[in-house]
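ok, trying the design again with the full structure, not the truncated one.
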């Protein structure tokens, strides 16, 4: 997957454009950009996937090629996370009543 394929795949997966920053993949006009978001960028010797928090960029991973970098960012943005775990009876009993 290249950057253009990644952009199309993220749109198809319904990932809001404001959650990521990818050069060459502009967000639609008027898309709100949260202060914190993931990014993909070319870097010396390859590509990086990172997070931008309060205007500061932090590299999370480095890749020698575009395909692996794109795959990593796609996985990060589409991962649903771990499944929820039901409360135990004890936990339910500690919840305030209605």
């Amino acid at each position: 997957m290249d950057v253009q394929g990644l952009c199309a795949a993220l749109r198809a997966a319904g990932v809001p454009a404001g959650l990521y920053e990818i050069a060459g993949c502009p967000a639609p006009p008027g898309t709100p950009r949260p202060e914190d978001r993931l990014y993909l960028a070319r870097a010396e010797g390859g590509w990086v996937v990172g997070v931008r928090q309060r205007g500061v960029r932090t590299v999370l991973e480095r890749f020698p090629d575009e395909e692996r970098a794109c795959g990593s960012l796609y996985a990060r943005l589409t991962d649903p996370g771990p499944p929820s775990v039901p409360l135990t009876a004890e936990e339910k009993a500690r919840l305030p009543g209605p």
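Keeping the full-length input from now on. Helices lie at 3-12, 66-78, 89-94.
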